[in-house]
Amino acid sequence: MRVGILYSRIRKDEKLLLNELRERGHEVEKIDVRKERFGLESTTAAVDDLDIVVDRCLSTSRSLYATRFLDSYGVPVVNAPETGDVCADKAKNSLALAEADIPTPATEVAFTTDAALEAIESFGYPCVLKPVTGSWGRLMAKIDSRNAAEAILEHKETLGHYEHKVFYVQEFVDKPGRDVRVLAVDGEPIAAMTRSSDHWLTNAAKGGETESFDLDERATELVEKASDAVGGGMLGVDLMEVGVGADADAAEGAADDYTVHEVNHTVEFKALDAATDVDVPARVVDWLEAKAAALADGGDENETEEANA
Amino acid sequence: MPVRGRVSATMTSDTDTLTAEDPITGEEIEIPADVEVGEIIDSPVTGTELEVISLDPVVLEEAPELEEDWGE
């Protein structure tokens, strides 16, 4: 197949993917979105005759626009722009999860510092304030007191981009020192790991330690539902274990349930590839091959699941 | 404008590496021979992130700074 890779930076994740595609004899067209122009009817990017394009843009804004343009030309692109639109915005992400009856942390959005302070006080302390867009745990605040809340809100109001004036306030989930990252393709888990840290932020990008994790039936069900809720594709679904106290031995697991706090649409997988026995890039390319084959047969995304079966 | 290294890359006797000019210090550095255009490597001299701009010939440039919308 002929595969396009939208990118602006080749990370280890993209390198793994490129190597796997080439080893299987697929033709790869690397598309550096920084060098291309996207018109209403066509683009300077070499997308003609591509069987499928994979969005690996590091920049969310570029990802959202580039996929939208390619989709408008009729170029098959994963993930779909609609999925990116939901996943790139934490408020839309939370709404999609809640609308699908997926357990997700209680969340309120407010547009002024006064209203945000009321939301924070209603949650009580600690609670969490997040930017609606953003990654790698940046600009996340665990708020322990009213004094801290007032200071953070004033800073965000004074210094922030307009998006920082959309105050996304969330309950603090007392997780057992770790969360769970699942890489899934159209709802089917490929690999899962825990990310552990003494810090309240456990992101791998923040230095959280990673370890392979076996999904139980409930977690698997939630991953599938979360994927459906945002439109499917190759996704990073993040869950927290509920009912396991922070002081409990995390290795014992045995969560009563899970809460899904986020679904990521341009998922990094190098940490999963290293932490688990799964050949993650191979599984991703398996999925891309099935997806491209279904498209070539005139199928749609739903038929890809059958091709995977 | 990012700093760009002069074009000066040669294969070393060890075919697993290339030599190229570090755009920050001007020193010759070794980089993996299987680098990709667009790939980010760390300068072995300064630790600065460098982007591979081209392969034939190899040109390195100081990588863009982290931006707010980068990430997953």
TrEMBL record, chain A:
GO terms for cellular component: cytoplasm. InterPro entries: ATP-grasp, ATP-grasp_RimK-type, ATP_grasp_subdomain_1, LysX/ArgX_preATP_grasp, LysX_arch, PreATP-grasp_dom_sf, Rp_bS6_RimK/Lys_biosynth_LsyX. This is Lysine biosynthesis enzyme LysX. Coiled coil: none annotated. Belongs to the RimK family. LysX subfamily. The lineage of its organism: Archaea, Methanobacteriati, Methanobacteriota, Stenosarchaea group, Halobacteria. GO terms for biological process: lysine biosynthetic process. It comes from Halorubrum distributum JCM 9100. GO terms for molecular function: ATP binding; coenzyme F420-2 alpha-glutamyl ligase activity; metal ion binding. Residues 94-289 form the ATP-grasp domain. Keywords: Amino-acid biosynthesis, ATP-binding, Ligase, Magnesium, Metal-binding, Nucleotide-binding.
